[in-house]
Amino acid sequence: MKYMNADMILPEELLKEVQKYVNGGMIYVPKCEGTRKGWGENTGGRRLIQLRNVDIRQQFAQGATIPQLMERYYLSCDSIKKIVYTKPK
């Protein structure tokens, strides 16, 4: 989040109105509804985890055990079970 000086970006009338409520303080202005991206959309992290989960499901279907998958992917037993026993979206 980038800090911006209000008197540089807001019209004078709006600035005076905001100063009535927050005189000299700092406020956070959230993005408009629907413009916020979900977790991992910018970095590709979500896609990497989806691909990892597909690999885990395939290996489990081919006979890999839960303890083997835990060791291979450094995940807990519950995490592996969640991945292999739930249907992908």
Description:
54% of the residues lie in helices and 0% in strands. The protein has 89 residues and is mainly alpha-helical. The protein has one domain. The longest helix is centred in the middle third of the chain and has 17 residues, at 45-61. The mean pLDDT is 89.
What is the gist of this entry?
By secondary structure, this protein is mostly helical. It is built from five helices and no strands.
Which SSEs are present, and which pair or pack?
Layout: H1 6-9, H2 12-21, H3 45-61, H4 66-73, H5 77-85
- Net shape: rod-shaped
Report how far the terminal alpha carbons are from each other. Answer: 32 Å
Indicate the proportion of strand residues. Answer: under 5%
Number of helices: 5
The overall number of domains is: 1
Features:
89 residues, mainly alpha, 54% helix, 0% strand, rod-shaped
